[in-house]
Amino acid sequence: MKMATDPDIAVQLAQMPTEVTGGKATGHQGVPPLLSVEHLVKNFGPVRAVDDVSLDFYEGEVLGLVGDNGAGKSTLLSLLTGYNHADSGVFRYRGKLVTHTSPSTSRKSLKIEMIYQHLDLAPDLTVWQNLFLAEEKRRFKILLDKHSMRHRATQVLEELASKIRPDDLVGALSGGEQQVVAIARALLFERDIVLMDEPTAAISLNKVRDVLDLVLRLKRLGKAVVLVSHRLEDILEVSDRIAILSRGAIAQIVDNDHQISVTDLARMMFEGAVYRAAGGENGKTSEGV
Description:
Blueprint: H1 2-5, H2 7-15, E1 35-44, E2 47-57, E3 61-66, H3 73-81, E4 88-93, E5 96-98, H4 103-109, E6 112-115, H5 127-131, E7 138-139, E8 143-144, H6 146-159, H7 175-188, E9 193-197, H8 205-220, E10 224-228, H9 232-238, E11 241-246, E12 249-255, H10 262-277, H11 280-283
Parallel strand pairs: 3-10, 3-11, 6-9, 9-10
Antiparallel strand pairs: 1-2, 1-4, 4-5, 7-8, 11-12
Helix pairs in contact: 6-7, 7-8
């Protein structure tokens, strides 16, 4: 490959890691992970979308997940949420092997909540109705316990330091405020791991700060947050570690010392892509999805 023979690129390739094991951060030595995924593989026909990914997730940590289009980010998230099933690999929650087969087991057994870029909210319902949608509280298993749900919704919104009220109509809220509602649902049902897919992509720039503050608040509450974003400046601002995906595999994991620039991170992504394309990781060169 022409790119791989350039002298500067050759030097960079020589510095790339040849093996990534466990995805542990230096600050977590001796601390057991909340969730570990080990040797995940997912194929779609001849395409290997996730290629032998092992990664640890820790309480009170924000993990940034970056990579070019086709790097495997969306497929990896789909394996975590149970919408797709891994062809091989295992999940360990608090050290125990977990059979992971559906979105239901993801929420209940792995304590994962996924917040999508296009929020799955009902605009014609109130905030509290959205929070408890499909998981309503009832008295005597028949009557809706509206008072209890409103009260609990108020508590969760206060945890997030939000001025949103439980009876506000979701369709009348801004994009940033709707992100608060989606995050509040994760707190409401006590999820330990919050996956956020491009949370700042569809909101105004003046609301980006609010969403990043929410990410940091989740961290302070002890949640493990996985942040996927093409806005590298957001990743660098709030992440403790950054996992760089390329062609379905982890090319590199770095501890974020907040001295890394956007240019530095973009170069790491590029180097990882070149390394994989040049036959790194034992010559595996299949494309990610």
